[in-house]
Amino acid sequence: MTDRSPAPAIADAPARTSPDPGDRPVTELARLLGSRALTSTDLVTACLERVTAVDPVVRAVLAVDDTARAQARAADHRHAAGHPLSPLDGIPVLVKDNIDTRGLAGTAGSRLLAGAPPDRDAKVVARLRAAGAVILGKTNLTEWGNFRSTRSIEGWSAVGGQTRNPYDPEYSPWGSSAGSAAAVAAGMAPLALGTETDGSLVCPAGVCGVAAIKPAFGTLPSAGVVPISVVQDTVGPLASRLGDAALCLAVLTGRPLPTAPAPPETVRMGLWHVPGMSPVAQDVAERAAERLRDAGAVVVPVALTLPRDMLVDGLDALCAEFRPSLERYLSSRRGAPATLEEIVAANRQDPVELGLFGQELFERCAALTDEDRALAPDRRRRSRQRARELLAAVLADHGVDVLMAATGGPAWRIDDGPDPFTRTSSTLPALAGHPNVAVPAGYTGELPLGISLFGPPLLETLLPYALLAERCCGERRTPVVLRNASLPRNPR
């Protein structure tokens, strides 16, 4: 994309504040932009300079939008005239590259979509633009949202290579919203959008030390998003602070969200130790629970087992939903393959695409019959209803308002083999279609770990508890990539 917009005239600007894209809350950046102590042009320039400085190591940004500075100048003009469009006007945002942006990337990490970019914005991107946000660029992801293979490598795509964890580039950023989480952690932008089907927002947030909101299903539109399942996929924001992610979501939905933590003396939380999860992650969740108790909250252990039939129904439904969801999307893309079978065949001819892992999930989904797909609605309905009933029952049986659990992790060392199997707490709220919020909770060595909060069906109910958990548990450290500018470049 080419920046051809003329610079608007802005007169009588006061002395400017030096921007650091990762140092200030978005609410403060918005106030500084409104007072013209900071310009969007300076903020965007600082973000682009950060991308230049650290992305050769982190490899989170797949494409930079050449119009970013023009967008910033337009925002500065609006602020100078006293007519900002929203609290996000002039704020840089990075967008996961399975979310369409007109004329820019739109690959889902696959070389098969790397030709002609999308002709129009996804609906959620159109809302960002209407709010005045600056689309800074696109972030790398686990290819096809990590639905190509059961032995995939998180944060890797054939287009973007391997995204790395800003806290230690030898370690994984998880995924599939790997680039969005890593970029925010490394201060390349104050906000990013990602997507989740099961864990793809909260898991990378947890191991990259940032906050993420997976809203309830349907909160944000999914039109223009490369799908896995149009009845489970969810778009959500990531930010260094939960309040910033909540502000972004409030602007995109047009409805206010709570900004104050719940009074700790009114809070009852259930601590779920997920069976089979890493003891290191469980220990971080236990320490978070102790901090909440010290603040006055009641935190009690809860027992919870996910029924196998619920999980089988959910996976069978997902596989049956994938092909029609994807092919409906592909029909909107110029030069893209038209069918899943075409994608499978083209991948078999491409040694880069299949050089590190296969496509057995694609092959499984392509082999399903019309009869298999006809069963998907009932399987989806059963799985969702069972998950919702389970959440409601555990909250009621233990007399708690919300559940808390380690998100998953810790991050693992990157190599050329498949990633280790890692238990998470994300599947139950994902199947239920309920919101799930991840916040930083601690560290193992230099590597962050997060906790997730979920249970209630409404984010408005959940968010004050998550804000309290962040306030009590959200220790912050500077990522190593920002402390050491001479890290070796280790491409893959």
From TrEMBL:
<feature type="domain" description="Amidase">
    <location>
        <begin position="42"/>
        <end position="462"/>
    </location>
</feature>
<dbReference type="InterPro" id="IPR023631">
    <property type="entry name" value="Amidase_dom"/>
</dbReference>
<feature type="region of interest" description="Disordered">
    <location>
        <begin position="1"/>
        <end position="25"/>
    </location>
</feature>
<dbReference type="InterPro" id="IPR036928">
    <property type="entry name" value="AS_sf"/>
</dbReference>
<dbReference type="Pfam" id="PF01425">
    <property type="entry name" value="Amidase"/>
</dbReference>
<protein>
    <submittedName>
        <fullName>Amidase family protein</fullName>
    </submittedName>
</protein>
